[in-house]
Amino acid sequence: MKHLLLAVLVALCTPAYAEIYKWVDADGRTHFGDKPPKDQTSEEIEVTVNTYTSVSYDMSAFDTLGALVIYTRDECKYCNQAKDFMRSKGIAFDERNLDHSRTARIQYKRLKATGVPVFLKGTQRMNGYREERLVSFIEENSQKAAGK
């Protein structure tokens, strides 16, 4: 059980592009590391980024006071598409990258999210990315913040 917990922690704390290796020592103990052992056979473990594949809405655990916040990971293609789209439209946003920020990981945990990207605006939350849904989400929540 300790080894499984260690494996999960290593997978969660390591950026998706890092190489993770698994091997069993002479005593039958399973080990994980970022470099393969020189004297034993090991296998490379694939680490994947959990992304939302559809869009859903919910109340946010935080009030962003009208700011648009996006929780991302480095290797999330939907996160990168969303950021590129927002930049191309001049939409201001606050990126909180789970691969680089401990604070972002703590906030993300409080959201009880299970994937990325996660968008927050005011007290509203959107999970996942679709260009037209993001535009609607921003517009609707901008009007709510303005009291319309």
Automatic annotation (TrEMBL):
Name recorded for this polypeptide: Glutaredoxin family protein
Keywords: Signal
PANTHER family linked to this entry: GLUTAREDOXIN, GLUTAREDOXIN-LIKE PROTEIN NRDH
Location of the Glutaredoxin domain: 69-118
Residue ranges occupied by any DUF4124 domain in the UniProt entry: 9-48
Pfam families, sorted: DUF4124, Glutaredoxin
PROSITE patterns, alphabetized: GLUTAREDOXIN_2
Domain of life of the source: Bacteria
Signal peptide: 1-18
InterPro entries: DUF4124 (IPR025392), Glutaredoxin (IPR002109), Grx-like_ET (IPR051548), Thioredoxin-like_sf (IPR036249)
